[in-house]
Predict the 3D structure of the following.
Amino acid sequence: MSGTNGSRGPNDVTGPNDVTGPNDVGGAGDGRSRPAAPGAGPLRIVRLANFVAPASGGLRTALRELGRGYRAAGHEPVLIVPGERESDRRTEQGRVITLPGPLLPGTGGYRVLTDKRRVARLLEELAPDRLEVSDRTTLRWTGKWARRARVPAVMVSHESADGVLRTWGVPVGAARRAADALNLRTAHTYARVVCTTEFAEREFVRIGARNVVRAPLGVDLVERHPALRDPALRARYARENQTLLVMCTRLSVEKRPGTALDAVEALRRRGARVVLVVAGDGPLRPRLEQRARERGLPVTFLGHVSDRGALGALQATADVCLAPGPAETFGLAALEAMACGTPVVASATSALPEVIGAAGATAADRGEAFADAVEDLLERPRAARREAARARAECFGWGTAVDAFLAAHDAPVSATAPPTASLRPLSPGGLG
């Protein structure tokens, strides 16, 4: 299946990039390997993550669904994350170990694993067969630990490094140089780098990395469905003659939520009857609420919506979902809205254009451009735009995503099956 603009389709799992030349980057391994043997049993896949939102968010969703999938395939997933206090729980996604980690000021609740010795001791005790790391900055040292322990390690790129730096105001050239330096170290340290979209993969291709594979994320196509559309819920937020917009995102700088408010203001200047409901919380919420009050914008801030059924109903009931984050490397919330039959307007500078395809619309990172895209979507027949959104989302089931991530680990898709042969065998320190 082809993706947007001729890119590879969302279900493709790509092998190491055929990038040649003097600047090629593979791993910095010692050549020793510990791949799963044919007919191997369950693998203990230990996963590490920082910057996990305390209650929701795309990373939390991805970790949960991948863990479920690994368990269903017969493997033993163990997740290590930071939290307020220590805990060790058995959950639907496998064992989840929480270690105390300090709050990062100004992030709205993010915590970080800072005690390297304690994490290293825990890794030694767990004796993983595979290591999966969802943080290329503060946890990059675990790649070196894995090489010494002869454990094949994979780093999952959940963000565009230069994209995030740009959203924080770093000039384009400086952001690119910093990202390239960071990504060079990452590619050398890990056996493989997993990117969820071609967009995320580009910054590694740029530095000549040859140990990059592509594996998409997914959406729960049963939990998220157009049948969740609720007329009573719609009546709560919008009148019959109004357009209901929704934005489900963390209210932080890198997500650029202010663009949605700018779009509402632009649409109202044009005479459009629109309202916006924002599901999500974060450090920018007070500032955004103040802006909406001062400009008289019809925006409702719900904060964090913990009830996933209620969130799904909101996504299904909206006319259009806004996804203004310019550095998104996949966009799970947007994909969930599409699974509910709601088309998405996304930032043209993010990965979402290749995810939403022709079923949505893209816009430059300005309120006026987002307003234009909303109007374009609303000109399409309602039934057609909802059917197209759902059909596109059906390309991204979690089963496909789990199989792709297991392939990146050279792990069998079931504990009794031989490991995939589609990729070169993993070596602990990287692929040269």
Notes: The longest strand covers residues 76-83. The chain has a mean pLDDT of 87. The CA atoms of residues 281 and 303 lie 5 Å apart.
